[in-house]
Amino acid sequence: LNSLKQEIEGLRRPMGTQDNPARTCQDLQLSHQGLPDGEYWIDPNQGCARDSFKVYCNFTAGGETCVFPSKDIQEVREVGRAARHAGSQRSPGRQGGGGRPREEGGPLGVVQLTFLRLLSVSARQNFTYHCHRSVAWHSTTSGDHQRALRFLAANEEELSYDTSPYIKAVMDGCAARKGSSRTVLEVSTPRLEQLPLLDVRVTDFGEPGQRFGFEVGPVCFL
Fold first, then answer.
1. Which domain holds residue 204?
2. pLDDT tens digit string along 43-64?
3. CA 157 to centroid of chain Cα atoms
4. Are the C-beta atoms of residues 31 and 22 closer than 8 Å to each other?
5. Where is this region: Disordered (predicted)?
């Protein structure tokens, strides 16, 4: 009887541990007010705890559940190319599945990701573009967004300035196309099937001396 009571209490007030995971970080915050931001275990489909996985809980932002991308695509250091190879550059993320989030030990399963989306109302993800004489979003020279980055969403849609109202530039240091700087773009969408971002196409690349790199932030569900 005591064992049954403990099991019921664990369901009512999950601890966010591997053996007693919560459904989401928001559920965990509702059960335990005052928890610090940090890593916790969740199990969105509420099956056995064996398929629970570790996430970062941002309680400061209201209980966001943040899942980090694969380490092989989380950061791509500077890429350069000679002028004779002029043209757009696509990241290696698609081929390697790098844009997909990971649980500890392997890729996050489709079932768990689907349940996490069902339990959330919005999702956001940041993308930081490190540039050297390369536009990422707005161009102050031409005054338009013709060379804006183009992203492949999780649902296979293409997201960019002209196709999505859910992308904004938090900062846009690459707009001047002079020297080295960075642009931080935030995709914040109620269409949860769009995230995580799977790939990116760089359109302002190929001239002599141009370089770029990027960092992919976690997908945070709320």
1. 124-216
2. 999 988 889 999 999 999 999 9
3. 16
4. yes
5. 1-22, 79-106
Residue with tokens 């009571």: 5
For residue 199, give the nearest of 76, 77, 35 by alpha carbon.
Answer: 76
pLDDT per position as a tens digit, 74-127: 778 777 754 333 334 555 344 333 455 655 545 688 999 999 999 999 999 999
Q: What is the CATH number of the domain that holds 10?
A: 3.30.750.130
**Residues 116, 56: one domain?**
yes
Say how many residues make up the chain.
Answer: 222
Q: Around Cβ 177, how many Cβ atoms within 10 Å?
A: 19
Q: For 160-171, give the DSSP string.
A: STTT-TTEEEEE
**pTM (predicted TM-score):** 0.86
Q: Where are the beta strands (DSSP E) in the chain?
A: 38-42, 53-58, 64-67, 75-80, 89-90, 102-103, 106-107, 123-132, 150-152, 158-159, 167-172, 180-189, 199-202, 211-221
Do 4 and 12 form a contact (C-beta atoms < 8 A)? no
3-state secondary structure of 123: strand
Task: Tokens for 39, please give them.
Answer: 């890593």
Give backbone dihedrals phi and psi of 34, rounded to 5 degrees, phi first.
90, 5
Q: Are residues 114 and 142 in the same domain?
A: no
Same domain, 136 and 200: yes
Pairwise CA distance, residues 175 & 163, whole Å: 19
